[in-house]
Automatic annotation (TrEMBL), chains A, D:
Organism: Guptibacillus hwajinpoensis
Protein's UniProt name: Molybdopterin synthase sulfur carrier subunit
Subunit structure, interactors included: Heterotetramer of 2 MoaD subunits and 2 MoaE subunits. Forms a stable heterotetrameric complex of 2 MoaD and 2 MoeB during adenylation of MoaD by MoeB. During catalysis MoaD shuttles between the two heterotetrameric complexes.
One GO CC term on file: molybdopterin adenylyltransferase complex
PANTHER family according to UniProt: MOLYBDOPTERIN SYNTHASE SULFUR CARRIER SUBUNIT
Keywords tagged on the record: Molybdenum cofactor biosynthesis, Nucleotide-binding
Function: Involved in sulfur transfer in the conversion of molybdopterin precursor Z to molybdopterin.
Stored Pfam families: ThiS
From TrEMBL, chains B, C:
Gene3D superfamilies according to UniProt: Molybdopterin biosynthesis MoaE subunit
The UniProt record lists the keyword Transferase: yes
Assembly description: Heterotetramer of 2 MoaD subunits and 2 MoaE subunits. Also stable as homodimer. The enzyme changes between these two forms during catalysis.
Keyword presence, Transferase: yes
InterPro entries named among the record's database cross-references: MoaE_sf, Mopterin_biosynth_MoaE
Record keywords: Molybdenum cofactor biosynthesis, Transferase
Name this polypeptide is given: Molybdopterin synthase catalytic subunit
Pathway recorded for this protein: Cofactor biosynthesis; molybdopterin biosynthesis
Enzyme Commission designation: 2.8.1.12
Superkingdom classification of source: Bacteria
Pfam family, one: MoaE
GO-annotated biological processes: Mo-molybdopterin cofactor biosynthetic process
Catalytic activity: 2 [molybdopterin-synthase sulfur-carrier protein]-C-terminal-Gly-aminoethanethioate + cyclic pyranopterin phosphate + H2O = molybdopterin + 2 [molybdopterin-synthase sulfur-carrier protein]-C-terminal Gly-Gly + 2 H(+)
Length: 77, 153, 153, 77
């Protein structure tokens, strides 16, 4: 089981801030593809990803219990 | 004692400044980001900031660590507010203390640029007739490398 | 309302910051100069600042004027303390507000450099075993042009 | 009658913060020479001068009622 977090515009777009999914041992890029199929309006192609609060590359494998957060372009400051 | 914090409360500027003062410091640079009413002629009514707080605080701490590596002896604190803000409200306070003035300016500038690169905080702008998440949420342009540039480590 | 002042009292940092906040400002840079305990390994006990107050305030105002000419729309305030100061006491506060962050850093840096060139204020340093007016009072070196450089007017 | 102001190290050196002199229509450089004769330890060769709170060049003429201030190298900030 993994947790997937959405923020800002993406969160509004899918109407959820958090999803639970029975996925693991899956590349981030494959997870992105799966979620974009599920939410056709959602674009994650160029969205950064954090696993357990650290930025991770798209070829990183998501493990069981990981918290995966999609980080759209930031605009703090 | 350095502070790296995301908060929903008003930021106490003095507390942030005092957190970096030390006897070896001769210069303290403070950067305060406030809500601006006009941007390119467009009138802002209010702003809303959202964060991924636990990760954002880690990233702020990381910026502080990068600063102390790049400018040894320099102390920093960064506090960013989230929630709904009105015109002239303070969104972010950066305080940097150093023995000499040049590094205090450089490190402070570095901190604000890094916040805009790597800290998961998002700003939604409310105008009289609309609202929008800032930061190219719709991915009309991509980060050149697919993720923010990470210098120094 | 911009402030350009020489004072014998403790400087209220918030009052200086608040004096430059305005709805068009999105960035406020503050520079605080404090009394540093160690300079090149030498331990300072206290400092004394002396000024030619009426002329010093005119020169501070002039720096503010130069800033608003170089960076239109940028507001600034500068307050410098005189008298005897202890370690970590605040000697000078510069606050600069601007629509965008780059100018707030540039104008603030400009202000502190100009203070060190043209404002008649002098610092006497007290160490454990001595004291000295800083700034080459004995004229071992001269200003290259016999007077401080005056750019921009 | 003119007023002459001294500050910082120069003030300590001559033991006065202010002098009144019956001089006018005199170049600053000549006033400096005169004062350095009066106070042999005082060096004003490379000291800046302000007349009525504005910096002035050494060839400027001091007028009656002027306030002449000698400004040794500043060290504020």
């Amino acid at each position: 089981m993994i947790t997937v977090l959405f923020f800002a515009g993406q969160q509004e777009l899918i109407g959820e801030d958090k999803l639970k999914r029975n996925e693991s041992q899956m590349k981030i890029s494959d997870l992105k593809t799966k979620l974009m199929e599920e939410y056709p309006k959602l674009s994650l192609q160029n969205t950064m990803t954090a696993i357990n609060e650290e930025y991770a590359e798209d070829d990183r494998i998501v493990e069981d219990n990981d918290i995966v957060a999609f980080i759209p372009p930031v605009s703090g400051g | 004692m350095e502070i790296y914090k995301i908060t929903a409360d008003e930021i106490d500027v003095n507390a942030v400044i005092n957190s970096v003062i030390h006897p070896e410091a001769g210069a303290i640079n403070t950067f305060i980001g406030t809500v601006r009413e006009f941007t390119k002629g467009k009138q802002t009514v209010s702003l809303q900031y959202e964060a991924y707080p636990s990760m954002a605080e880690k990233q702020l701490k990381r910026i502080g660590h990068e600063i102390s590596e790049k400018w040894p002896g320099v102390q920093s604190s960064i506090v960013h507010r989230i929630g709904k803000l009105a015109i002239s409200d303070i969104a972010v306070v950066i305080a940097v203390a150093s023995p000499h003035r040049a590094e205090s300016y450089e490190a402070s500038r570095y901190a604000i640029e890094r916040i805009k690169q790597i800290v998961p905080i998002w700003k939604k702008e409310y105008w009289v007739n609309g609202q929008e998440w800032i930061g190219d949420q719709l991915e009309k342009t991509a980060y050149p490398n697919g993720k923010p540039e990470e210098d120094s480590k």
